[in-house]
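Tutorial sheet, problem 5. The two components below are modelled jointly, 880 residues in total.
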Amino acid sequence: MFFRKTFLALSALFLLVFTQTAQAADVVLYSSNQPELIDMVSKGFEKQSGIRVTAVRLGTGEAMKRLAAEKNNPLADIFWSGDVAVLESARDNFTPYDSPEARQLAATSPAFVAPDKIWTASNTQIMILMANTRLVKEADLPKSWADILDPKWKGKVVMADPAKSGSSYAQLYGIYKLYGWEGVRKLVGNVRILDGSSLVYKGTAEGEFPVGITMEYAAYRYVAGGTDAVKIIYPTDGAISAPEGLALVKGGKNAKEAQAFFDYLISRDVVSEIYQMQYRRPARSDALNVPGLPPLSELCTLDFNPGEANALQKELLGKWRELVLEKK
Amino acid sequence: MNRISRLFSSWNCIFLSALAVLFFLIVYPMFSIFMASFAGDAPGEFTLKHYYLVFKSSFYLKCLGNSIFMSFMATLFSILLGAPFAFFITRFKLPFTNTLRTLGTLPLILPTFIGAEAWLLMLGRSGFITRLLADLGIDFPGIAGWQGVVMVFTLQFFPFVFLMVAAAINSVDRSLEESARNLGAGPLRVFYTVTLPLISPSIAAGGLMVFCMSIENFGVPTIIGGDFKVLAEQAYSEFMNEMGGNPSMAGALSSILVLITLGITILQKSLVERKSYAMSALRPPEIHKLSRPLTLAAFSFCALLLILALAPFAVILAASITESRGPVMYYGHFSLDNLKAALQVAPRPIFNSFFLSTTATCIGMVFGMLVSYLIVRKKGISAYVLDLAMMLPLIIAGSVLGIALAATYNSGPIVLTGTWMILVLAYFVRKTPFSVKTTSALLQQIEESVEEASISLGVPPLKSFLKVVVPAMLPGIIAGAIIMWVTILAELSSTIVLYYGPWTTMTVQVFQYIGSGDFGPASAYGAVLILSVLLPLFLLNKILGKGLSPAL
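Model answer (structure tokens):
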């Protein structure tokens, strides 16, 4: 009797567990964003539309590789969010979508939507200098990109390898736009190169490195969390602004649901909420501001031209690699 | 005997199915990745250019040297710490043996990247111990660099040596040591001339595992290596690259890693096989009671090693109940919020972790048992090749193998991506080498005469195997199964590129948060994982500790 009951209960559990895969009214998201963000948009979207979101969280590099590996039988419907340079170089795995939510954006800031609509920017990263005052005195802090190119900062500044990280490539591209090949040469001479973008802000916050070249939102999370030692420096010669975007997966099985989710993710309310919660600056200009962060109009920013950045990629990274190998 | 019936004997079938497993789960999926290393600029062109580039570049050569150096050091220290640890807790009467044994297995559960993060929090340039030392006027530069990498590897991987050696020591026949004593040898002399040679295959096999795990690992050098760069990092970042990367270079670097490991395996095999000692191990050795100061010394050694190895666990447990705001930790401020949130989400990932791990371990146990018998007993070139091929899954980075499996079984006659089966297969093939190595090392020290006697008495070979050989191999099989089970629970790299739908595991949960620097929530999941594995592991050791002796 007891065994029969246990057996029945176990079978019921297994049936429940093994049949619970993505159903028709689901949308499958691959995302490199923070779990809180994924939870928030998943719950919000399900409440609004009744469509359930199944999320797989993995790094942007892994996501691009996985999408390519699954291209004959895609499991995912949508990817959110990575540097548009990354989306651009993985464009074969995506399909264009002209979102009604993005029309205004495409009209006012053409750099935020791919010409063929293969990706759309949801937010934009401001590249800044992050410093730890435990290791560098406040009076000695660098103020601009030009400062950290000075030999006196040699070995004290870290950045991620632009050959491996999209955000870091945007930083390199920005320095190149400002100071040309000479600037790139000085940059390579001065920085220590880390293997991933998260190592830069984590290490700087933990006091492993005095100064890191990183993203505003990542550094501000430490400031907002209450770390007094972390300082954000908006370079006076121009904070580099690099959009991050989302894209629909080519051949995704739930195309209609994915489009609805796409619209939801770039809607004014959602990007505003993400800005309040995780400090990611919305691409669209009609979103609310966050107290404590300067509005974009007050900053001296350099614009990121994804088309140009993409065209320059091979040349810039080739030269970078050459300079790095020379340095060793 | 009829030739054809011999060809189709059960052992040949097992040999062929072992090769088929390796072919379909490793060679075939990885083929295109390795072939990319020979691809030239023009389609169809064959070139060795990428290998030439590696050996011409001083940067890559330095990485290569670093990889070998670091793995060698980690292996050396793991043997120096793991072997005595095993010897002390199996042969001497020490207090809390079961607890020591359980805690000694525990480091394997911790994904290495979390271990590295935790050490950085303690001994990094601004780690809390570093700052404490600075307050005392001691200038400690932090562990970043090769010393830190070797330390983390040693403390996380010594259980491989410990578990293998412990299994082997228990299978040393009592009469051999007794005879040596009766002939007038002192205890130290008995150890060096009898016990040590007998367990040397297990020490070598454990060392080999540590070497492979270290040379394949890219997470620890990335996090605390600083300017100390290794080859696995370069291979990984060329492959798993946001900007597209260079698949040819990734293939070339991975092939070089595979070649190094095959070389080390051949070296290990020739060392073990040159000195072949075997015995009919039927009476397990007795457990000595030491004098009080010696007991204290042995116990302190074990306890001290465990305290060091488990220090990251303490950090994680402490962080899991610490208040956090985003990525910022408020140590000293107590809060259960993260733990509560983790416990709410945890049941399904815990179920997944345990279900997937147990399933893959069961398959791997049987497979490992059969394959190691083939390798040790059916000598010859085919067994040799099989033994070498069994090391392949250990050295291929999990995420690379995962992507290869995803691409291979995503369409066509067999579709596995998006199911839990592909996770089980990936875990099985990645961790089976542990089972094979543990079991075959033990089998090496058992004499063939017992089974020969059984066969000559008319019992068919397969039945003799099950009735006579399996019981003798049991300690090895069990040690292998424990290693497999625990390391699968800690597995992240292949999971992250293969999991789908509800099949997330506990390590994925930890990784989600640590990736964005949120150590608080990450630790909460880590703590739940550690605590949930502690009880089954303790019970396993308790039951096995009792049940093993009569089985022998």
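Marking note: Chain B has 25 helices and two strands. Full credit if you identified this.
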